[in-house]
């Protein structure tokens, strides 16, 4: 393997393009009560939401920065713009109604194609604003709601207020408090009892402006016996200044419901990605997280499922890929709060070119949660000698009859594997790429075709010049 100083720079050109910063609405940089009031005024929100924002802001000011995990000391909260929107008013429902530069951005990222060919609904967020949202008519006739969260505050207040901030309260951590104070955009999904949404719903989040913060708020509810698959993708151009992405996702699976939430994140390497994602699963419900982390400067993300009803299940597949200048601190949490619940956590990570990955997970079995079955598996791959992978598992088991398994493996690519593939005519770089994709096959097979192809392309891109 080559020394890290000799590695070929990466080509990020597909994602590293910037539109002119011609925003219709934009607040000045910095965070204050006045900025929060201005954001709420721009959105014409009800008074209860402004009160919620201001209360969360007070908690944000009081809450210290975390004293564990990656170094966040470079974050200056007054250096960011907290609201920037290229369109005024409601999200557009016709693609041709968007500003040309915004259309060009999402065209290059494949959003219209995805809408036409694969998805039942598509939302597109550009910095702070949800600029486009559309759902297929057949889903609307079934009663499925898929809109942006700002619209849901006004059009579905009873459903939204029942759940908003209940799964991830602003008191959870410093960044959930920040999001609760300045949130904008995100997706709101409601699937009525017994309805199977069938075709997945997709949202795409794009940061364009320099030193901007993106703080979407996503709320997904599957009522009794309902089923839905929600997919999100994320990118940003590269700047010398850092950007901040601090989202909150709340997922509710009512009894016998099934929700799958798929993320393929490819932020540029100047983005702090600090996200809180949590689900509640009630009796006989199933929540699946399929979580891919390919980009960012620093990621802290631990999708969690609280199993709150008998027979509830959680299936979490988390993948991290860290290259030069990246720290991906990710993992999963399963909290068994009811009897006869089960969970499976699989974590896969690859660190190359001096990147660092960490698995940070929690498996908690509460008192009274008898008959629990849970399995955790952490696999890390280090193709070179300059990268690092760490594992921080926490198991808190309060019932003696719980069946728990935990296994962790850290390894390198075997020279005999490379030799075998090269003996079959492959170049060394192609052989290593094939091995890496085999390592991630469990993740890739869970993705829609376009996303799986993109994952393959990104891995190939990152490996360019990484071997001698």
Descriptive notes:
- There is one protein chain.
- The protein is built from 12 helices and 25 strands.
- The chain is of the alpha/beta class and 468 residues long.
- The protein has a domain at 20-230 and 246-255.
- The strands form 3 sheets. Strands 5, 6, 8, 9, 11, 12, 14, 15, 17, 18, 20, 22 and 24 form a 13-stranded mixed beta sheet that branches. It has a 10-stranded mixed beta sheet with strand order 4-3-7-10-13-16-19-21-23-25.
- The longest helix is centred in the N-terminal third of the chain and has 16 residues, at 47-62.
- It is globular.
Keywords:
single chain; 468 residues; alpha/beta; 13-stranded mixed sheet; 10-stranded mixed sheet; 12 helices; 24% helix; globular; disordered N terminus
How is the topology of this model organized?
Blueprint: E1 25-26, H1 33-43, H2 47-62, E2 84-85, H3 100-108, H4 111-117, E3 121-126, E4 129-135, H5 137-141, E5 145-148, H6 149-155, H7 157-163, H8 174-182, E6 187-191, E7 201-206, E8 213-214, E9 217-222, E10 227-235, E11 243-245, E12 248-253, E13 258-266, E14 271-274, E15 276-281, E16 286-293, E17 298-301, E18 304-307, E19 313-322, E20 327-336, E21 342-351, E22 356-365, E23 373-381, E24 388-397, E25 403-411, H9 415-423, H10 428-439, H11 441-444, H12 449-463
Parallel strand pairs: 3-7, 6-9, 7-10, 8-11, 9-12, 10-13, 11-14, 12-15, 13-16, 14-17, 15-18, 16-19, 17-20, 18-20, 19-21, 20-22, 21-23, 22-24, 23-25
Antiparallel strand pairs: 1-2, 3-4, 5-6
